[in-house]
Amino acid sequence: MFTGLESPIHLIIVLVVVLLFFGAKRVPELAKGLGAGLSEFRKGAQGEGEEDAQGALDDREEDSGPS
Fold it and tell me: pTM value?
């Protein structure tokens, strides 16, 4: 059903439609916002994993401490 969608002509058509829909001034702003959002998401995902690992270490230290 979706075979050949990654061909260059399809990408060009999609880019032209986006350009017509949003305009030449708006496309760079949208790309910048999308990049910033992805960057923030990655930082949050990595930070969350580090917090979970640190929390697990803290829990183990509390469990093995003197009672």
Answer: 0.49
